[in-house]
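Interim report, section 4.2 (structural modelling).
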Amino acid sequence: GENVEQHPSTLSVQEGDSAVIKCTYSDSASNYFPWYKQELGKRPQLIIDIRSNVGEKKDQRIAVTLNKTAKHFSLHITETQPEDSAVYFCAASRTTGKLIFGQGTTLQVKP
Amino acid sequence: EAGVVQSPRYKIIEKKQPVAFWCNPISGHNTLYWYRQNLGQGPELLIRYENEEAVDDSQLPKDRFSAERLKGVDSTLKIQPAELGDSAVYLCASSLAGNSPLHFGNGTRLTVT
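Predicted structure of the assembly:
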């Protein structure tokens, strides 16, 4: 069935360093790939998304890349700050809108 | 704009008791989702509505879970009877249409004792 694998499960970086989180999806018909940030006890919030007709998208310190051939997509955060510490989830869906989420990556940014 | 509103925020019940969660989506959002999030895991879809029609309920344990979205606006998710394994955060989300960005509510944290 549909599946999204996310790695690593935990990631610790020094403030100012970059962080990369990778996801692999199984459904080749997937065409929408959002990333959500969830702080402890709070709702998941959309931080960036990409559609299959685009290979890369940037928004300030955040970027997402997509390799449809390999069915991989990645989140890149540059110049990390302590407030970037949270759990990050990738997800994938077809046109139907059924979002399948990865297991999450706990990012810790050390001051 | 007002976000997705869920109530209650927390619920503690004994096993075998019934429980209900309520969700009011963002105004104008036709698609409504109920997700369940277990501790340390990603959200898992339970049911998805397009207006008042449930278009995907394949992951909903229908022996004990039910949902409704009367008039295509707010929605209720019910569990009867609750089991210990139902302890989780139940998230409601809405979007303008399928494959549009999802906006989540704050969730209901259910504890079954």
